[in-house]
Amino acid sequence: MGAMPSAGNAASPAYSASVEPYAFVPRVFAAQQALPKAIQAEQRLIEAIAAQEGGLSRRHKDRLFWTVASVWGHDCRRVTGPDTSCDETRNDSALVAFAQKLARYALLVSKHDVEALKRAGFDDREILEAVQTIALGQMLCTLANALCPDDERQPASEMASAPFSLAANVEYTETPGPYLQTKAVTGYPIYPLFRQQFGFVPNIFVDQMLRPDVVEAEAEVLQQILIGEDRLSRIQKENILLAISAANANTYFVAVHGQILTVLGVPAEDSDQVVQGEYPPIMPAADVALLKEIRKLALPAAASPGKFDSGELQAQGLTQLQIVEAATMAALTNFLNTLQFGLGAVPDFPPHRIFTPKDLHRSAAPSRLTVHESQSEDADTPYVARVQNGDTDAFEELVRRHSRRVFSTLAGILGGVDDARDATQEVFLKVFEHIGNFQGRSKFSTWLISIAINTGTDLLRQRKPYEPLDEIADDEGFRPKQIQSWTENPEQLLAASERNDLVREAVLRLPPKYRVAVLLRDINQLSTEEAAAALGVSIPALKARLLRGRLMLRESLAPHFIRTENRSFNAQLR
Amino acid sequence: MLSCVEFLAEFGDYLDGAAGPELRAKLEAHLNECKACQVIVDSTRKTIRIVTDSDSFTLPADTVEPIVTDVMGRIRQKKL
């Protein structure tokens, strides 16, 4: 899209100064000139987050803005002044490291990152302000990407330009939120507005009540950009929020706004399709084109295909103003998603879908599904029904969809690639033969995996007749022996191929009972409920097997990853 | 206060972020006092991360279509 026409001094110089590293801000506001209420709300948000002095210093905020802009490769300038030159204090380093991770690898941020900031001397209010500042930076950079694409860019930082990989120098540990102390405030004047608009006060705002003035500014932004109807309808905007949150792998906003869309009358199946990047057949072509294109404005970690191009949308009949409004909505979504990733806000509704880092870099990998989803719509049902009605060709799609998962299950049980490939074919032939008996009591994939497990186990029994899958009595009394600290980033010690070999050997050494639990949960990414159903065991039994398998794997891998300087230290269990 | 054995029997849900508040509080109280269990939790999390991110059992991308072709070929042959 070409740069939008200038609106003169749409931006107040005072607000621009608050986000000084971002030279593009006045041009962003100029491009949004047809949305004066949105500009006003954005300016109020900038005022609350960037201009108000309270906890975090202005110097720190400038560094955060600069860090975010470098991740995006944006036109930014390092702010100079008496406090900023060559001031690499410990606090600054911790803050910059946090900003890089939240801006670049938002999904990987955990409570441990927040605790690292606390250890560096930042209190809860300052950390909250850091998260809000980084989120604001993400929002402004999104707007610049969409509305000022012709601006000169600086090369993105090394971290930003690196392909997304969990092997990068970033930690990922799933930790429960919220990460900061929340201030229980009841009857706060802004709460009725949330209740009126959403029917509840979302946790994402409750978790920010150490800065109620910022929450008020956020409410205003929501009111003007999301709720107020302009060129796009509320449902179109909610769909943008849903599509980008899914691209960002944000479990919270997919759960909450999927629910809000249901309340607005959109069938849950339609929203699920938007989350998957597949669109309901009744959705107008222009809306589908809009959602496909707008996903390209997701956060830097998302595997967004290509650069946002408004020309594609104009070709579908969308007006320039609709496109600007959609880009503004995308920017707001990135703001909200970043807040959630940084604060660890817990979903207000049970999520249909829980995203993991694999959703960002391996589109073929399914995310962990919760019980609710596994019991609801099964995307395979139409194909299964067609096969059951004699349409052999429909089976081809089922083979294509599930061959990876069946193969990895069998490779994990049998070991050899050739054996697993042959067995994969056998499994699909069996499934085709017996598909008439499948009554849909479980998901098709669960039934399929249970057949794969049985087939693999039968083949294993032919080799090792005395090693049954489910009869290892030694459940009690397993005590870890390797109790030495591991190095901080164990992945970096070995090349990917060496790690793969190591994991493969360690998994194959596990007794089958524990091996299959690890394969289903940690390698195939099934939910606990799906894995238990595929194995035909109770959830507590599956959990016990999984934990035991993980602990045994830890024992096998430990000698490769123990900190060398600590080899002499060995903590004792009590 | 939990013993280490009790902790190790209970911390599976904690690893998955699925422990309820009461269990989490009990586990964290033990963790605050026990270096050995801190080491085990940290290294088990790293184990899960390494295993989850590995491609040890991944079907090579160029193998999917040959499998589809073979399976469908055998099914169609049987039907004829």
Labels describing this entry:
heterodimer; A: 574 residues; mainly alpha; 27 helices; 2 strands; 58% helix; globular; disordered N terminus; B: 80 residues; 5 helices; 0% strand; elongated
Task: Describe the overall structure.
The complex is a heterodimer of chains A (574) and B (80). Chain A is an all-alpha fold and 574 residues long. In chain A, 58% of the residues lie in helices and 1% in strands. Chain A has a two-stranded antiparallel ribbon. The longest helix of chain A is centred in the first third of the chain and has 24 residues. Helices cover 78% and strands 0% of the residues of chain B. By secondary structure, chain B is mostly helical. Chain B starts with a helix and ends with a helix. The model of chain B has no long low-confidence stretch (mean pLDDT 89). Chain B is built from five helices and no strands.
List the SSEs and their pairings:
The complex is a heterodimer of chains A (574) and B (80).
Chain A: H1 13-18, H2 25-31, H3 36-51, H4 58-72, H5 90-104, H6 111-119, H7 124-147, H8 158-161, H9 191-198, H10 203-206, H11 212-227, H12 234-247, H13 251-263, H14 268-276, H15 285-294, H16 310-315, H17 320-343, E1 353-354, H18 358-361, E2 368-369, H19 371-375, H20 381-388, H21 393-414, H22 417-434, H23 444-463, H24 496-509, H25 512-523, H26 528-535, H27 539-561
Antiparallel strand pairs in A: 1-2
Helix pairs in contact in A: 2-7, 3-7, 3-11, 4-5, 4-7, 5-6, 5-7, 7-17, 11-17, 12-13, 12-14, 12-15, 12-17, 13-14, 20-21, 21-22, 21-23, 21-25, 22-23, 23-26, 25-27, 26-27
Chain B: H1 4-10, H2 12-15, H3 21-33, H4 35-53, H5 61-79
